[in-house]
Amino acid sequence: MTKVLVVDDEPAISTLLTYNLEQQGIEPLTATDGASALKIIQAEHDQLDCILLDLMLPGMSGLDVLKQMQIQALDTPVIIITAKSQEVDRILGLELGADDYISKPFSPREVVARINAVIRRNQKATQNNSQALFVLDELKINREQHIVTVAEHPLSLTPKEYELLLYFVTNKQQVLSRQQLMEHVWEVQADVDSRMVDIQVSHLRDKLKKYAPERNWIKTVRGFGYQFGME
Known about the structure:
This protein is an alpha/beta fold. It folds into 2 domains: about 5-120, Rossmann fold (3-Layer(aba) Sandwich), CATH 3.40.50.2300; about 130-230, Orthogonal Bundle (Arc Repressor Mutant, subunit A). It contains 8 helices and 12 strands. The radius of gyration is 18 Å and the shape is globular. The termini are far apart. It comes from Secundilactobacillus oryzae JCM 18671.
């Protein structure tokens, strides 16, 4: 059974989410603060399929939870829940490895759809090992072990950065629009904020260039999108 952790300190929202998850055959776990959430994530890491994480939490914030997950290499997919006024926090959350975001107020049906999309993407990334090793000059990707190296230096990528890189390398030298990236990597339609794509691409680009600064791995094609593997 799919298992999802709901982290929110508002009882009404937590109850609404858990009810709708149960109606879809999803087993919900709940936490009302960041510290409790982190303990559950650490204990249930191998069993959790997704985390719904409110950013405004008492004590340890949602952003702090994401930081700790990154430090401890806890790679469970995360959907952050934010108020519309929390744009800066939402961007920081994406930079810290969140897979998606939902703004309050939200539709419970939309939340369930986003969860299912994130879980599908994560399963597809795990199962898609048809090309076990990808090599492009200094870049190597071991798809069976999820290890990425540049000039023999391992890169620490978030799950979303890893999925984005895989999509780039499997479409090497093609110009990919933001809409294509949102539909194939995020599995959402183009009405979602395209800055989410730009943030993740920028983060991935910086990490790739760390050990090969002379290489322009991801080229911006003005007015169209991005192109990978072309100098």
